[in-house]
Amino acid sequence: MLKKNTYTILFISWVLIITVLSLFSFSEVDLDTGKLNIPYADKITHFIFYLVFGILGCFFVRERTKGQAELTKTSWFMLVGAIVYGIFIEALQYTMTTDRMAEFGDVLANTFGAFVGIGLVRWYFSKKRPLKWKF
Prior knowledge:
mainly alpha; 0% strand
């Protein structure tokens, strides 16, 4: 059973991790980075979160439909889903938290990350690759 639901569990877990980390307040946590100062680290984090979201989301749909959903439709569905979810989380940050703020740059980083992640899945299952989308 676990093997049949691996991507479902991973995707749902990843969405929960994104939600918690996006809405959790880090103001009382000492996040001393020392002398390490990475410019735009926040945007890089958003990009990576949604890159993984896009990849796991595509594999989640593939697993749930047993490969019957077309890759193109799955790609569009996950891209739109990632963008809507990212905007929803930013709206929650704006309305429900006191020390987190919604930023348009975060939505762009989320969108670009999802686009790249889904693009990687599309490339991986292209006709040039031996692995097929359908089971």
